[in-house]
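Re-running Glyoxal reductase to confirm reproducibility after the cluster update. Everything else is unchanged from the original entry.
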Amino acid sequence: MKFVKLNNGVEMPMLGFGTYLAKDGNETTSAVKEALKVGYRHIDCAKIYNNEQSVGKGIKESGVPREDIFLVSKVWNTDQGYNSTKKAFSTSLEKLGTDYLDLYLIHWPKPLNSETWQAMEELYDEGKIKAIGVSNFLESHLKDLMKNCKITPMVNQIEYSPKLTQPELCKFCQDNKIQVEAWSPLMQGKIFEIELLKELAEKYKKSIAQVVLRWNIQMDVVTIPKSVTPERIAQNFNIFDFEISKEDMQKICSLNVGHRTGPDPNNFDF
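Result of re-run:
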């Protein structure tokens, strides 16, 4: 496993396990247990995924000590604001069966960001969160937040894939010591249609998903693939025994066309 040191010194595993769209109940619990069994130590979830309780059950039943797991959740849009953020955070802790989070994120940029961030800064100061950050923030959103914040976000979790590398945003984050993290790194399965990635998978004797996840890591981007299939969970973890050449890294980067599979952070209605 590779780790990245956040701007407050906390170490974050660069490969995590995503739980978006994993069904609440046995599907999520089993997937989390399988991920931890394989070796993942970074679990990403969110209130809006409606499966935090099942994630917590999977962690508990895995037998892996809580302190060995980097656990992440997010405050949803309807919970933004000072008091409601603190309440939402407490609810997430209760559902996950833990008394702290390793990382807590604002899920989407909304007008109440500054009040939400103030609540998160206080929870961080109290030691209830090891690191705080944002998700889906563009440069303008980050600048607005950073005007009044005491603590610079440690992470920005954004949609990031071979067809959406957001280089200017990544450069801004790098310059401000904000770690970029990728959601939907596999483009909801659309990466399997890309000819170049098929060729590189053959060249490196790896799956297309493994090539893309390895590319993420070599781009210094934390990544959180999601699967509920044991074989895929294991395969996605097995990316630390090969390296993509500089030339091939550039080829993958050249696929960028600014194509989103998810909502535009400047234009969403939820």
